[in-house]
Design a protein that fits this description.
Layout (H helix, E strand, L loop, with lengths): L6 E2 L6 E2 L5 E4 L2 E4 H11 L6 H26 L3 H31 L5
Helix pairs in contact: 2-3
The structure holds zinc ion.
The site of zinc ion has 7 residues, from strand 4.
Amino acid sequence: MSSTRSWKCYKCGREIVPGMRFTFTKNGAIHWECFRENVRDFFNGSVPEDVNVLMELMDYLNEGIIKLRELEVRAIVDDVKGTIVSRRKMLEGEAAKVMKDLEGLLDRYGAKY
Ligand SMILES: [Zn+2]
């Protein structure tokens, strides 16, 4: 996924600029905060614990991805940079899988997000 491409958030309609947290659902690209708001709204504020757990796992993985991007910039030697890039891609793959699980769980509740 190229970082030069830009998307519009399907909730608020504003552009998703690089550095902003966002995710992809079956509905398209959405700011992470907008997604959380949709989930909170659907459950009227009492979000099931398993949904919270998966959202926190996403937070955790995303923090890791942000940290790895920072380390990537700081790395000087090519193979060190390469090792960090491959770990970042691994985490991005994991985040995408967790997002699928989260969507599956939300679908079971019939949630709109
Ligand atoms: Zn948004």
